[in-house]
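Q: I'm writing up a methods section and want to include an example of the input and output format. Could you take the sequence below and give the corresponding predicted structure tokens, formatted cleanly so I can copy it straight into the document?
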Amino acid sequence: MHWLRTALIDLAAPLAWLPASVTAAVMFLLAALVALALYRTARRLLRRLVADRYPGLLSAVARLHGWVRLALLTLAFALVLPLAPLDPLMRAWLARLLLIATITLIGWAAIVALRIAADLYLRRFQLETADNLLARKHVTQVRVLQRTADILVIIVTLGAALMTFEPVRQYGISLFASAGVAGLVAGLAARPVLSNLFAGVQLAMTQPIRLGDSVVVENEFGTIEEITATYVVVRLWDLRRMIVPLTYFIEKPFQNWTRDNSALIGAVLFYLDYRAPIAAMRAKLKEILAASDKWDGAVAALQVTDTKETTIEVRALMSARNSAQSFDLRCEVREKMIEFLQREHPEALPHQRHEAAGAAAMPLPRGR
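A: Here is the clean output for your methods example:
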């Protein structure tokens, strides 16, 4: 970059008759224009070289578009600052701003690099497949750890930027060195944030829930839609969203219907008359399931599970590939079985019986 500094000096030489502040502003403007011109030239050249051979690299460069441009501007300003005719106080403040900008750019670059690495790793896993247990496991783990890493990078970047100011640096040193009330208050205030942060790491490692899992939370059935750094979004069956803190899934019990695999066994209960044809219903259930594309072919059973005073309880079991297909399959079996009984075995439906007690009724008293 020595040639850039020389070029800026040569360009600013004719402006020596202007006030110092105007000359400095012109030098910074020229540096910005040169940096942006270099950026555009390098970007066009890179597109021509790697557009066909390395599309992944071109995508990464596109995501770093804003960062590279700001980095070049910061570098150009840093090269011009020692040459600009500024007073020492202004020069010191601009140097501090450039230092803060450099720290921010480093943190930004770390976050973008983490996201690019996560996306490249997750390309091999597809959530749209039927058996997506392994994909959901890796996607959940990577996304939760990525958000946790983003928070840590932001905290470290913010801390490093604040430590460039002398008063803040001294306050931070005294705060970390003391164990007084201020430290206790800060610890209590940060407890919810830290608890959710640690809960996110624990969820990523142990994975009691994953993206796409079917769960029952607070007696509501839904699907894990999003896992952030502080809360989980559960999409309920009626498209409502339940927002649950991360710590909930560590501290409280809940139902996970797809913990080990996506397949589920559904049950349909019928309350019928004692004259219900169980064998015919069992054959009809197999016929209905064989004709349905929602049945995975694993489980098909029909049994009498309870007897009451006037009805019997018949349970039909069937398996499906996931919770959505299980719900639709149960509805389909329920509708077609009721239609079958109404059409061919109406006597199997529940009836109310009224029996006359005492065929020989007591004689009425004779009148006097």
